[in-house]
C-alpha cells in the first residue's frame, strides 16, 4: 500500500511539474525536469535544467517555495524584485526567496544553462507568471 501511495504521489507530482515546465515557454527556452522527491513533508523538491538562447529572458514569475541554482554554462542577469540585478557566470550559484518575483536573462552572445532546485508547496504549481513591471 505504501509503495502504491508513493508511486501515485510521484506520478501526480511529475505530471504537475511537467505541465508547469511544459507550458508554452518563450522561444529560446528549453526546460528539462530531472527528478522530483516528495520531501520534506508537504513539499516537493524538484531538480531541473533550464537552457536559454542568447537574447532570451525567462519571464517574470514566482515559485511557492525557495529556488537555488548553479550556472553550468554562459552568463545570466538575475533580477529579483527589491534587489539589485546580479550578473552570474558559470560556476556561480544563486538563491531566490519563496514567492519572490524574479526573471533571468542571458547576458552576452552565448547560451546559458542552469541547474535549478526548487523546494515548493506540493499543492501549488511549480511556477506562476508575475505581472510585467
Automatic annotation (TrEMBL):
Record keywords, A-Z: Signal
Segment forming the signal sequence: 1-22
Source species, domain of life: Bacteria
UniProt cross-references to Pfam families, sorted A to Z: Cupin_2
Coiled coil: none
Domain Cupin type-2 span(s) in chain numbering: 49-118
InterPro entries: Cupin_2, RmlC-like_jellyroll, RmlC_Cupin_sf
PANTHER family linked: CUPIN DOMAIN PROTEIN (AFU_ORTHOLOGUE AFUA_3G13620) (PTHR38599:SF1)
Protein name: Cupin domain-containing protein
Amino acid at each position: 500500500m505504501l509503495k502504491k501511495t508513493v508511486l501515485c504521489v510521484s506520478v501526480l507530482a511529475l505530471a504537475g511539474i511537467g505541465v508547469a515546465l511544459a507550458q508554452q515557454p518563450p522561444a529560446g527556452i528549453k526546460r528539462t525536469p530531472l527528478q522530483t522527491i516528495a520531501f520534506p513533508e508537504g513539499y516537493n523538491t524538484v531538480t531541473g535544467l533550464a537552457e536559454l538562447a542568447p537574447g532570451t529572458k525567462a519571464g517574470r514569475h514566482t515559485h511557492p517555495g525557495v529556488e537555488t541554482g548553479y550556472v553550468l554554462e554562459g552568463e545570466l542577469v538575475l533580477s529579483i524584485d527589491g534587489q539589485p540585478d546580479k550578473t552570474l557566470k558559470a560556476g556561480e550559484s544563486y538563491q531566490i526567496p519563496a514567492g519572490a518575483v524574479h526573471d533571468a536573462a542571458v547576458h552576452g552572445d552565448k547560451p546559458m544553462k542552469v541547474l535549478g532546485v526548487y523546494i515548493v508547496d506540493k499543492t501549488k504549481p511549480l511556477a506562476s507568471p508575475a505581472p510585467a513591471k
